[in-house]
Design goal:
about 45% helix, about 25% strand, four-stranded antiparallel beta sheet, about 80 residues
């Protein structure tokens, strides 16, 4: 969990090649498309971001950062239920 100001953010961090290129991850891409579609239909502001090589990973989570193959990517959201 990251806290910026009063807002809490939750993140999923993984190897970028695995996240974007592994054919088994089609469900992740589909979830992202569906979430974007739903937010547009509801006129809601998107609550998630894809962050390439997040600088905060090493600074805030040094032990976990050692376990992530680089380059990496973070899927960050304010929606704890969705991201976990």
């Amino acid at each position: 969990m990251l806290i910026l100001g009063a807002q809490e953010y939750y993140a999923l961090v993984c190897n970028a090649e695995w996240f974007f290129m592994d054919p088994q991850n089609e469900s992740v891409a589909e979830q992202l498309r569906e979430k974007v579609r739903f937010f547009k239909e509801q006129n809601k502001e998107r609550d998630f971001f894809i962050v390439p090589n997040p600088k905060w990973l090493d600074a805030k989570f040094p032990e976990q950062a050692k376990q992530v193959k680089r380059p990496c990517v973070a899927l960050v959201s304010t929606d704890k239920m969705w991201i976990t």
